[in-house]
Design brief:
Distance between the termini: 12 Å
Shape: rod-shaped
Number of helices: 3
Strand content: 15-25%
Order of helices and strands: EHEHHE
Strand order of the largest sheet: 1-2-3
Helix content: 40-55%
Radius of gyration: 18 Å
């Protein structure tokens, strides 16, 4: 299982920062931003290899299930 920030959202923030810098803003004046979206990934193949069973309620909440 992996629970963390969305890489897609992080790349979007980087693009927004780059655009603001290219428009002339100073990097030191830009605010610090954090990704607001988190994602849950579950790898069922690894869970099975470890002898773990993942509840259906957790599988339903996952953003991506790797089989």
């Amino acid at each position: 299982m992996s629970y963390g920030e969305s890489l897609r959202d992080a790349y979007r923030l980087v693009g927004a920062y780059a655009g603001r810098i290219l428009k002339g803003e100073k990097p030191a004046d830009l605010p610090v931003q954090q990704s607001t979206k988190v994602e849950l990934f579950i790898n069922l193949k690894t869970a099975k290899a470890l002898g773990l069973t993942v509840p259906q309620s957790l599988l339903a909440r996952a953003d991506e299930v790797i089989e």
